[in-house]
Design brief:
The protein has about 500 residues and is α/β, with parallel strands linked by helices. The chain has a domain of about 35 residues. About 25% of the residues lie in helices and about 20% in strands. It contains twelve helices and 21 strands. Helix 10 packs parallel to helix 11. The longest helix is centred in the C-terminal third of the chain and has 21 residues. The protein is globular, with a radius of gyration of 28 Å. The two termini are about 45 Å apart. The C terminus is likely disordered.
């Protein structure tokens, strides 16, 4: 906008100064640049010397195929760049960076291995010198297998390692030096597909005095896991797919445990509040929960169980109760062609957890499905014992089968405080690689029709929400009718980073 101004004479036109982006406070500019992919942030340096100073102080450095090269719908394949090109890109960026104020540094590129140790060691030294707080080096497993990069613990010492608070290492070899203690302030440690034995792992954990979370997965030589007794700050533990693991010795302060693999003695402490177990060794969720968990986890508040449901189990009339359980999530895969399991049996959890507030039942049925019809017999009715705390119910993989419908109707009737019941015919669990065809789409439609017909009729409070599915199963790709959660899991499995 123009305005007139008199300067010792006639009026002259002047222009109001405009606010430039570069005029913003440096803190705001740093925040803006930090939200850009690293390749875009580097490009801002060509704008001016001022902008060059902005990106060079970037607090988050993420070096992956996606952040350096990938563009949406560009068609660039993941392995279109060689290890050498990736290394040159990272070196060029680190050379320009100020080396000050790095909060988080992540390097993820699967082709890298011990052949590139000279370059990776240099990146580790940069992280140490810049006092990085969160550090990730993940090179994933390679086929054919090459010698894993040996992480250089010798670079660290008690002084320069004191800034590190989070460390994640993937597909590396670990030989922890016994005479160096540097992980004094480490609060989070994750090891993925690493080469570390029992003694070195125990030694490593013993040096982490304030560790709050530890995760390990894909370790093929680990046979036992002992959490040091002095690890009083450790509240979360995740153990996944360690095939030789035979025993886990937990400390008394643990609150959250996530375990995937063959069933082994856990001996969980009474302090455990949140547990997630995924195992193919469990053939009945009901039997496992009531016989294995109820007596050892009296204070459990949240339970997630992922397992195949292969057989029906008969329980005694009186079973132990989960008096503190608030949230139960079941991810069940029914794969028996004889369908020996009965979904209605899951109603036992309502009596066993009188204070439960949220119930999730996610099902996948890998056999011929048939929605409920009158000739299948009358719907069964269990004794009505009011449940006054259950507020939220979420059921997926609802195909309209008789026992599924009976469970949903029972929960709806006895839950006096129910606020919402969501029924989704589409599955969120199951085999991601399973081929889906028109028959699967028809099963989703069957589930939708049955839920609308029976559950809406029994719903006198307006709490039932049935997710609508497409009826045109002949002209759509089957995955259009799959729950988005499942598709995102399949995409994540590709691990395009």
């Amino acid at each position: 906008m123009e305005k007139r101004k008199r300067i010792n004479g006639p009026l002259v036109k002047t222009k109001r100064s405009r606010l430039e982006l570069s005029d913003l406070p440096m803190e705001i500019l740093h925040s803006i640049v930090s939200r850009l992919p690293i390749r875009e942030a580097v490009r801002t340096s060509i704008l001016s010397k001022h902008w060059k100073r902005v990106w060079c102080c970037r607090a988050k450095l993420k070096f992956t195929f996606r952040s350096l090269v990938y563009k949406k719908r560009s068609g660039i394949p993941r392995f279109s760049i060689s290890e050498q090109v990736f290394i040159q890109m990272v070196d060029a960026i680190l050379k320009q960076h100020s080396g000050i104020g790095v909060e988080k540094m992540k390097v993820l590129f699967s082709p890298l291995n011990n052949d590139h140790a000279e370059h990776i060691d240099r990146w580790v030294q940069f992280a140490v010198a810049s006092k990085t707080k969160q550090l990730t080096f993940d090179f994933e497993a390679q086929i054919p297998k090459k010698e894993s990069y040996s992480f250089p613990f010798q670079i660290f010492n008690a002084a320069n390692g004191s800034h590190l608070q989070s460390l994640k290492l993937g597909s590396v070899s670990l030989q922890y030096p016994s005479n160096i203690k540097f992980l004094l302030n480490l609060k989070k440690l994750e090891l993925v597909d690493v080469n570390i034995d029992n003694d070195n792992l125990e030694l490593m954990l013993s040096a982490c005095n304030v560790l709050e979370f530890f995760g390990i997965s894909g370790c093929k030589i680990l046979t036992s896991l002992h959490i040091p007794r002095h690890s009083k700050h450790l509240k979360g533990l995740k153990v996944s797919l360690c095939p030789l693991l035979q025993v886990i010795e937990l400390n008394s302060g643990l609150i959250t445990l996530e375990y995937e693999g063959s069933l082994i003695p856990l001996g969980p402490p009474s302090t455990l509040r949140n547990i997630c177990i995924k195992s193919l060794d469990i053939h009945s969720s009901i039997a496992y929960i009531f016989t294995e968990l109820a007596s050892t986890l009296p204070c459990l508040e949240k339970l997630t169980l992922k397992c195949p449901e292969l057989k029906r189990t008969t329980l005694p009339n009186k079973t132990l109760k989960f008096l503190y359980l608030r949230h139960l999530r079941l991810e069940l895969i029914f794969v028996s062609r004889r369908k020996s399991a009965d979904v209605l049996d899951l109603a036992k959890f309502l009596d066993a957890a009188p204070l439960m507030e949220e119930l999730e039942v996610h099902m996948w049925m890998d056999y011929k499905l048939e929605r409920y019809r009158k000739h299948h017999g009358e719907l069964r009715n269990l004794p009505l014992h009011p449940h006054s705390h259950l507020k939220m119910v979420y059921i997926t993989g609802f195909y309209g089968q008789k026992d599924q419908l009976e469970l949903a109707l029972h929960v709806l009737r006895v839950s006096t405080a129910l606020e919402a019941m969501k029924i989704d015919p589409r599955p969120v669990v199951g085999c991601i690689t399973q081929d889906l065809g028109m028959e699967d789409g028809l099963c989703f439609i069957d589930g939708y029709k049955i839920a609308r017909k029976y559950l809406h009729k029994a719903d006198g409070r307006g709490v039932v929400d049935v997710v609508k599915v497409s009826r045109d199963v002949k002209n759509i790709w089957p995955c259009n009718d799959i729950h988005p959660y499942w598709l995102s899991a399949a995409t994540t499995g590709l691990n395009i980073s």
